[in-house]
Amino acid sequence: MSAVEVDEVGPTTAGAAGFLRRNRVAVALGLAVLCTLLLVTWQGRDTGRNGILDPENAAPHGARALAQVLGDHGVPVDVVRGRRAFEDAQVDGNTTVVVSNPWDLGRTTYRDLEERLSTATGSELVVAGIAPAVADALGLKDKDFSTATDRDRTPADCSPAQPLLDGLTLDVPGSGLGVPGDGCFGDQAGRLLLVGANGHRWVLVDPSPLSNDRIDVGDNAAVALRLLGQRDRVVWYVADPDEVQAGDGTGVGRLLPRWLVPSVWLIAIAAVALLLYRGRRLGPLVTEPMPVTIKALESTTALGRLYERARDRWHAAELLIEGTVRRLRQVLGLSPTATREEVVRAVATRTGRPVEAITGILDRVVRTDADLVTLANELTHLEEEVRTV
Question: Where are the bilayer-spanning segments (predicted)?
């Protein structure tokens, strides 16, 4: 190898750069997939005032129409965003609190919400949606969810009676989810509206009747206005998902379908069976003679050229040192598993050289071709000295 200018790049940096060069296609694809996932996540998240059933969202999935109609009927709507804003809001017996994005509530934040309302005697709570945190607070399990009705329009039929909704029907797509309990719209086994806390907590299982595109269908507007207009003013609480504490949200297992776990087990068992079948079919490895004999000198020269082209001097130096240590073990009569430290001590005893001097040769840092040539010469001289002593 010819001498070149000093390269200040150390073994670790050079190894990382070589890895990136060799795997640049895979690294580029990985970065592209990561950027795509981040972009999809960022675009798919409802932020600001564009969320589902947001009182200031005029899109079809928003609830701006309902908020404006309430204001036109003399029921002012105070929109609060986040837990801190809700704590600062005025909530008393003349207040109806509305939560239209319960999916962004954790168990703790929903419990704090109900505790706040329990101190405001006479206040009403209307929750649009049966999110996991709400279901946990109501004591509902996965098996409790069922088909409420096959009809698009469902009469109130409240049990116990709720004069507030007498004569009204709720218009939602048929075969929607229902849950058992006291309430309206459906039978005792599957309600679309749950009523609790002595008639002061209302949970609309399917919140779509409050959206801009369905509020004017059938009696949906009348149902929404009667629920939200029970008191003189409305506090519309828009929950902030960033306030959910770690481990307090919805677990991944609860969001996965029930059939997924058995399917994964079935696929795993099938994969293991396939591996065993193919392994038995292929049998043990068989060594075969190479069709062409390659001289050791040609192989060594080819590897040296590859190292030179890659400028991998550190790897080349390690191979030279390992070869010297292996040959010294044989000359000194040491075990093939003897460590480098044991070889260094044996060489020092044989030649009389200090241990530090021999260790300095084996631990030499190679940065240039000249350093590599010097190391090779010193290793050669060390082997010859051990053989001749």
Answer: 25-42, 259-277
